[in-house]
Amino acid sequence: MESHTILLVQPGSRPETRTYSDYESVNDCMEGVCKIYEEHLKRKNPNTPTITYDISQLFDFVDQLADLSCLVYQKSTNTYAPYNKDWIKKKIYILLRQAAGQSD
């Protein structure tokens, strides 16, 4: 089931570093988190043609963000429910496991 999801990101300690983006589903949002990390790696390694990383590096990146949370639309109550970093990491783990399973 697709649920509209809003991703809230605050990379640094200053509130003005906050941004948000919205996605059609939780999975799209988790892919968005991976893309944020990939963009971060590209900025740090501009001369590296291909970016590779493992899930523990991604999770370290998530942990060092000042804030990362999701608001997921709940159709039954017509409200958005908040989820924290741990929930996001679990969802990313499931998503990447499924993606790895498809490529075998």
From TrEMBL:
Coiled coil: none
InterPro entries named among the record's database cross-references: EHR_sf (IPR035912), ERH (IPR000781)
Gene3D superfamilies: Enhancer of rudimentary
UniProt entry tagged with the keyword Cell cycle: yes
Annotated Pfam families: ER
Record key words, sorted: Cell cycle
Family to which the UniProt record says this protein belongs: Belongs to the E(R) family.
Role: May have a role in the cell cycle.
Protein's name in the database: Enhancer of rudimentary homolog
Organism per entry: Papilio xuthus
